[in-house]
Design goal:
Helix content is 68%, strand content 2%. It contains eleven helices and two strands, in the order H-H-H-H-H-E-E-H-H-H-H-H-H.
């Protein structure tokens, strides 16, 4: 059936790569440093570098391309739609940032397509996309329990860290429940395909979401009772089985992240303009 193709692609995948052997703290700080670097730069040269390194790291994770192919396609579509809406809302934004105007295609009103606008939209779109590979690397190579242990090691209260771990761990289970409930409802004649009108399809989807919500609440109640019986939250601190000590390679990665981030911050505050535009 077509519904069998629905899979939860954002979850931990153990391929035994070098990235999997890094400490959870290292990968979390790498991810946060990467996001910070993306937020502070509008230089397309730096953005291209981040994308290249991110895709290389994603390849080094040894996760099969078919696992994240739907995510790549979905992200690309969303970013293209975002670029279109940005142009419709502020068609002259690129010219304001670049300080020049080179009309490529005259259109009515202020919607003429210019080289500056295209460069601006390409820069912003690639800027958002540059966070996609490293986000996948972090999720694919970091076990939820390892991630929560890293958060606790960095000062996050262990109750919050454990809640994050449970959320990441049970999202795939919720997806499985959704598929099972959908199959059961389809066996009862509930049609959610394109063969039925949109409003009827929405009503049929609600027949799936209702049981899914109640089953999720029941699972949360069972987990909560089990944790209460085991005395979770009674002590101020707790130990973590999955917490690993930092090794030499971890310190090397952290030093590299700190150095690159420092260079990025210096370049950002010394730059004369927000965008690097080679045709001005």
């Amino acid at each position: 059936m077509k519904t069998n193709k629905i899979k939860f692609g954002i979850s931990y995948v153990n391929t035994g790569s070098m990235l999997h052997s890094l400490n959870g703290i290292t990968k979390f700080l790498l991810f946060m440093g990467w996001v910070t670097m993306v937020l502070i730069t509008f230089d397309i040269r730096v953005i291209f570098g981040l994308i290249a390194v991110g895709l290389w790291l994603l390849k080094q994770s040894k996760v099969p391309f078919k696992v994240y192919k739907p995510l790549l396609m979905g992200t690309s579509v969303v970013l293209m739609m975002n670029a279109l809406f940005m142009f419709l809302i502020a068609p002259q934004q690129g010219m304001e940032y670049m300080g020049s105007q080179t009309v490529l295609l005259p259109l009515p009103g202020s919607y003429s397509i210019t080289a500056e606008t295209l460069f601006y939209l390409a820069t912003v779109t690639l800027k958002y996309f540059s966070m996609f590979p490293i986000a996948l690397v972090f999720v694919f190579t970091t076990h939820p329990t390892e991630f929560s242990a890293s958060l606790n090691k960095l000062g996050v209260p262990y109750r919050i860290a454990y809640a994050v771990s449970l959320t990441l761990r049970y999202l795939p289970e919720v997806t499985k429940d959704f598929i099972n409930i959908m199959h059961a409802q389809q066996a009862r004649g509930v049609d959610i395909s394109k063969n039925v009108p949109v409003f009827k399809r929405i009503r049929n989807v609600a027949k799936i979401l209702g049981p899914l919500i109640f089953s999720s609440l029941d699972r949360a109640d069972v987990i909560s009772n089990a944790m209460t019986l085991r005395g979770f939250g009674r002590n101020k601190r707790r130990s973590w089985y999955s917490l690993k000590p930092l090794q030499t390679r971890d310190y090397a990665v952290l030093a590299t992240v700190a150095l690159v981030l420092a260079i990025g911050l210096m370049n950002r505050y010394q730059a004369e303009s927000l965008f690097w535009y080679p045709f001005s």
